[in-house]
Amino acid sequence: MAHITILAIESSCDETSASVVRDGVVLNNVVATQKVHEEYGGVVPELASRAHQQNIIPVVEQALKEAKVEKKELSAIAFTRGPGLLGALLVGTAYAKSMALALNIPLIEVNHMQAHILAHYIDDPKPPFPFLCLTVSGGHTQLVVVKSHLEMEVVGKTLDDAVGEAFDKSAKLLGLPYPGGPLIDRYAQEGDPHRFEFPLSEMEGYNYSFSGIKTAILYFLQKEKRKDADFVAHNLKDICASIQYTFIKMLMQKLKRASRELKIRHIAIAGGVSANKGLRETLAAEAEKQKWTVYFPDFQYCTDNAGMIAIAAHYKYLAKDFCEQTVAPDPRLAI
Ligand code: KG4
Ligand code: ZN
């Protein structure tokens, strides 16, 4: 039987990535991280778009070369259609469309948030359906009931900032470089999470809010700095641990409630913030108490990558879910 070999491209934010999947096995995951945004303290959309244009050809060529796959062997080309930055998405979309047209093979559009979840199907153990996935990234915070590879229902989400954004903005208040999430994680490991207390926001249902706590942190730092100008430097580890503890507590509250009420005990996390060590440890500890089976993606598949786009495309290929050449990127594409 002929192989199903798909080239997948991810360009929704600040990573240009390409991956080749053959018969459901992800062969590689080439990621070019854009350093240009660091000095601006956040992703600059226009610069992201330009960097994708520079990176996309070498990244795709490297992915094909590493996988020892020639273009003529490809069964389909997949790309991230959204959600993400329009200018960034356009680069991957245009590239994928041209390549599919030139090779006369099907084109597969992939939802970036679905792909974060489907990253769990790259390696073992793979969660059985239905499972509950807490998807936590720089742009999203969602509780998703995953019914099959392609059927997902968002039961809760943030009504303002995403938790990754809250990590990054808090880090910025502490004078840490972008993206600050991983740095807060690192300092938190050596800090006291109970040293400072921040208010938890209460939202309806399984929804979240992270903008209030960000403001609370701002006021807290302003107040403490009036007493000690070097407050942050003197207490960095404890501040990071306390902020992280609060974010995790908020994430866990709704997750526990959703699991209990929806009676789902297979729990997964996905997205950039799922790399957070504190979140992983809390989830592992909670799993014992709640009798959960928990699933963590490999670190390389937590933050943005084309491996997850590739595995999502594989399942779409099996379902013959192809798209037309007229397809356009959608910055607000919903699950
Ligand atoms: O999924 P992702 O790579 O991009 C989006 O689709 O948004 O997520 C990026 C986010 C950033 O906010 C980054 O600070 C956060 O994930 N992040 C972390 C950690 N690693 C990445 N946040 C907390 N702890 C980490 N270890
Ligand atoms: Zn992402």
TrEMBL record:
It is found in: Cytoplasm. The keyword tRNA processing applies. Residues 26-310 form the Gcp-like domain. Substrate binds at T135, V136, S137, G138, G139, D168, G181, D185, N276. Its EC number is 2.3.1.234. GO terms for molecular function: iron ion binding; tRNA N(6)-L-threonylcarbamoyladenine synthase activity. Keywords: Acyltransferase, Cytoplasm, Iron, Metal-binding, Transferase, tRNA processing. Its main location: cytoplasm. Signal peptide: none annotated. NCBIfam families: gcp_kae1, T6A_TsaD_YgjD. This is tRNA N6-adenosine threonylcarbamoyltransferase. It comes from Persicobacter diffluens. The gene is tsaD.
